[in-house]
């Protein structure tokens, strides 16, 4: 039997006091790669924010990586996020320090103390995204695609049970988007579970996977035709 890593039943997703998605029923099992699509304002980002504790799940029931979203307390949110790898559209790198120090900052913030173990872990995740020779670079010295690879490496630091990627290719050109997508697929093939919000339908055709759509205040699965490419 498949192991559920994310489950929502009859959930209602709010942005401030506005209901953006109702009757959300969603299960993602360990090892799945799932796309989340929909137009701007359809509720994609609000759903993602609810999953990592930025918005409260006020109605319905939900659990994610062992945390109950209904009873999630503010002090528990950092512990939830340590079990999630979150990748944002705008990278969110610290511009005043190099790649290595960006990743070290996250490890120290999540309780790591041994310098040698931190270095080993940082080089391990950089190798997974093909950036092991860029550890000394400052963010402004990197292309958008390279910065997103670093952001993905950062998301892998604490061996997350689930990666939430919110429009990770939204600021990238088509060729770079494909490169970043290949990195995410390699990570998925290594056993990670990924939920990726996107509006890039070309990527979905090129890398077909289970696809959920936010539209008209509802979430439902859609069947994508496979690309012949």
UniProtKB/TrEMBL annotation:
SMART domains: AAA. GO terms for molecular function: ATP binding; ATP hydrolysis activity; transmembrane transporter activity. Keywords: ATP-binding, Cell cycle, Cell division, Nucleotide-binding. GO terms for biological process: cell division. GO terms for cellular component: plasma membrane. Residues 6-229 form the ABC transporter domain. PANTHER family: CELL DIVISION ATP-BINDING PROTEIN FTSE, IMPORT ATP-BINDING PROTEIN. Part of the ABC transporter FtsEX involved in cellular division. Important for assembly or stability of the septal ring. Belongs to the ABC transporter superfamily. This is Cell division ATP-binding protein FtsE. It comes from Lutibacter oceani. The lineage of its organism: Bacteria, Pseudomonadati, Bacteroidota, Flavobacteriia, Flavobacteriales.
